[in-house]
């Protein structure tokens, strides 16, 4: 796997991880303390987990397309070949 020249700095990665952990912990503590039934808490917890998965999937797909040159018009999409 080759390294990307536009990789974010270590400070940005650390700040992103801290924000994710702090936000997730705050959400889970609030969900734990909420006066809801357990099935409602489970629904909201799974919705949060799916949102995180979706955000990561979009970022990885965009990164892969940029690496292939598809976004800047340098290479055709696989379906166009």
Could you give the topology of this structure?
Layout: H1 10-33, H2 38-68
Q: What fraction strand?
A: under 5%
Radius of gyration, in angstroms, nearest whole number? 18 Å
Helix and strand run:
HH
Structural class: mainly alpha
Protein name: YiaAB two helix domain-containing protein
Pfam families: YiaAB
InterPro entries: YiaA-like, YiaAB
GO biological process, one term: DNA damage response
Keywords:
81 residues, mainly alpha, 2 helices, 68% helix, YiaA-like, YiaAB two helix domain-containing protein
Tell me what you see in this structure.
InterPro entries: YiaA-like, YiaAB. Residues 12-64 form the YiaAB two helix domain. It holds the Pfam family YiaAB. One of its GO terms (biological process) is DNA damage response. This protein is an all-alpha fold and 81 residues long. Helices cover 68% and strands 0% of the residues. The protein has helices at residues 10-33, 38-68. The longest helix has 31 residues, at 38-68. The mean pLDDT is 84.
């Amino acid at each position: 796997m080759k390294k990307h020249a536009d990789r974010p700095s270590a400070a940005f990665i650390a700040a992103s991880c801290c924000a994710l952990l702090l936000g997730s912990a705050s959400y889970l503590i609030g969900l734990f303390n909420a006066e809801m039934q357990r099935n409602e808490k489970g629904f909201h917890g799974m919705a949060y987990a799916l949102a995180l998965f979706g955000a990561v999937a979009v970022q990885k797909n965009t990164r892969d397309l940029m690496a292939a040159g598809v976004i800047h018009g340098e290479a055709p999409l696989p379906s166009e070949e």
